[in-house]
Structure prediction request, 649 residues.
Amino acid sequence: MANYHLFSASTAKKHALSLLCMMCLVVSPMWSQTTRLLISSDDPTTVDSAKVYDGNTIAHVNHVGALIGVEATHSNVALNAIANYISPNVDGINRIVVTYTLSGSDSSYYLPPFNDTLPGGITAKSLTVAGTTIDTAKVYNRGVLLNISSPGTLYGAIDGDDVHLSAIARFADPNVGVDKEVAVTYSLYGSSASNYVVPAGFTHVADILPAVITAPVATVATGKEYDGNITCPVIDQGTIEGVLVGDSVTHLVTASFTNPNVGMMKRVNLYYFLQGPQSNNYTISLPDTAGAGSAFSSIYGRTIEAEGYVIKREKTYDGTDVAEVLVPATATNLVGNDNVTLITTARFDSPEVGTNKQIIVHFAIEGEDAGNYLAPADEIYGISGAIIPATIIDTTVGERGIVSTTSKYCQGDEANLGVHITQGIPTFYTLRFSEEALAQGFADITVPVTIEAGQTSVNVAFDIPLACKEGKYSVVITLGNRLYSTISTTWHFSVNMSNSYLVAAFDDVVSIDNRENRFNTFQWYRNNEAIEGATKPYYQDPRGYLEGAYSLLVNKGTDDEHYICPLNFYTSDVKKTVSANPNPVINTTKVKVTGFESEQHVLTIFNSYGAILLRTTFNGEEYDIDMTTMPHGTYMINVDGLTTKTVKL
Prediction:
């Protein structure tokens, strides 16, 4: 920090007084005074304002300032400066005193500048440590400190300084654990300790081992009644010692036979467990004596009892008197690991069909250890039992007992079947379709039914999905009575080709989509009646319009006959027109529609074989068709079911 000496009014007065005194010396040698020099504020003395503690007070002078007040006649004078801290120690407040001296042959004519006091600071010196030795484990004692055998050697202290090292190793918690983190911290002590920075600590790992408690003396019961397990009652837990003050630790003693079987004076093993918030910090040790951790006791035999059984009160006639056991009896004291089985059986008082029948329940035991038990006596379950007739399908009627007006259907049809029976009263039927049928949208169902006694058939119905493809399918029909006694039969059926293969080529022409040339023979039907002579891939109604249900029988070869389901057509009172211009067409033609209610239209182009070449939608009354890529020939343009012809040149 710079040492400034500035001229002020008082300084000027002092300088003037010095000059006056020098004049007095000329006049009168008896009156003389030495001049005190000043330091220029433009060239002051500068000193380092801070340093690291080094045990002395010396401050470094960077530059000695320029003198003011030196006379030309006595100019052989030089300024010297030394700087010292008031104290060599680190503290919050310190000062640097700059002391000036003069040298040179004319220095006796002057006094040096006044000493300068400047602010300054001494910072603590950093030390290092090596060789700290810490224990690798300790026994639990509720404390978190780990023994440090040696805090290590301190490096970097000034010789002669009274500074010493201490260290503390501390776990985060006092509980037992392996490789627990330990925080090691250092501290300094001694009269010089405040002049140094405490070395940084580090982390360490060590174990806290459980404190050992000697097992208490416990007393077991002299015997117990057989209960199917190896546990032996403990009547006195004993007292544990060695728990540290402040810890909450209790103990539990359990005793077990070597096996659960009946026997006298059997060896019993004792097991000790610690409980409580701090129990994990302790371990129990058996006393080092013969027979420690064991005792003797007996297991006495007992009689088992049967409980909780449930018998089905009704059954379908099967020619026997056996009643179904829904829930077998449970032996309340049966040994789980013994080879003993309690068997529950039940019988009706007779095998004939009837109501208010009596059911007798019988119990028996078997197994290697059955001689240790007595079976419960027979019991009367009640007099409300019943045996009802079984349902039997009359397979001599129809197809496996099923009667239907047809076995071929169209999409959206309902199949109505009659399943004939010779006896029984079904209460529901279940349909389980083949995988092929399920893939086409059929769904398995269960439907309740009600029939009167003596009725000989059950009505069964299901729908043919609209998206079902042509094919042969099967369904398993199961009839069940109120006791869920069931009987099943399989029925096969076919689904014809969808009417989506039929299209209206013109107002009076219906055609088949036969683009793949799958079929080569055709027979058209209207309202399920064959149309004489209608054997082409299309049919033109001579009435000039299509009205009614049109269907088609097709074939490719002698054994590949298919029926295409009917498509309904109805005439309309609204006059609609579709035209194409130019016609014939070279490249493009404009389709124009009139009389249509809808703004959006579906446009389809067919070739002369009825194959679809283009299908799109457009809005409004006009649409341009690019026919550049189409070959020469005759085409049919259909808009929303109304068709016109055009020729491509």
In short: The mean pLDDT is 87. The first strand starts at residue 2 and ends at 3. The radius of gyration is 59 Å. Residues 9-27 form the longest helix (19 residues).
